[in-house]
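In the laboratory, one determines a bound structure by crystallizing the protein with its ligand and collecting diffraction data. In a computational setting the workflow is compressed into a single prediction: the sequence and the ligand go in, and a structural description comes out. We illustrate the idea with NAP.
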Amino acid sequence: MILILEYTLNKKKELKEKIESYRNNIKLVIVQVNDDPASNAYIKGKINDLNEIEVRYELLKLSPSIKESELIKVIERLNNDPSVTGFIVQLPLPKHINKEKIMSLINPLKDVDGFHPLSKFIPATPKGILTFLEDLNYEFKGKNAVILGRSEIVGKPMASALISKDMNVTLLHSKTSDEDRKFYIEHADLIIVAVGKPLFIKNEYNFKKDAFVFDVGINRVNDHLVGDCLNNLDVKFQSPVPKGVGLLTRLALLINLVEAYNNGF
Ligand code: NAP
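The predicted complex, in structure-token form:
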């Protein structure tokens, strides 16, 4: 099975070659309205990727005390700027700003994070996992998927994407009983874990031997990053943490950006 790191490097190379002719016309703007260390790290990763495939970008760092009305003006300007192919508003936003309102004001054609309710794009984490599976020629149809976690950015859009692939999809959450979780996990061909609890899933389950597990969780424990799953589950494929779903997520943002350009944004 191909390693995710190797896969994303190959895909970025492919993307770079593909967009060579129109690279100078693509531009991503990253709007940051926080000074959160995790956001800084995510943005640094995104910028590395953009540099790697030689796509123009602008990091618009705004004061966390900016008024909501001012931020709205920035969004409107980016929506109307023909030189901007796509833009993202890095979360979290300060408490005095209504996140849903801001997300709903982004032009869906430029919403490469896929957070607008009418966005043309699948959010980056589900899109990254989906694209990886498609490139493996994974046979989705009629298989059982279970997703742990029902967030707007991972669980729910992941479920919707897998339903579109004709999978039987079950979405679990914090009110799911231990017994039901065991039942669904043990019947699953594809398991997506996005709970945010270190090593929540261990080898106490009788996994299907050919199951695929994507560990979305990123948890900091004693200065180390650990996923929601124990490493080396007894399954056919498990994405590592780090250098797993995080890399697929970063790749998907680039794919969405190129799609925005091709769609005529
Ligand atoms: P989130 O907003 O942190 O919410 C956690 C979800 O897990 C909730 O839906 C919660 O259910 C559910 N949950 C809690 N206990 C559960 C249990 N016992 N069984 C099943 N579900 C349970 O979710 P998120 O934003 O998707 O983040 C989840 C994790 O993924 C975090 O560690 C985050 O840092 C990481 N993440 C990683 C990437 C990446 O690129 N690798 C991207 C995004 C997020 P309720 O709704 O009932 O509370």
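The pocket of NAP is lined by residues 125, 148-151, 153-155, 172-176, 194-196, 216-219, 245-246, 249 (CB under 6 Å). Keep in mind that any predicted model is a hypothesis to be tested, not a measurement.
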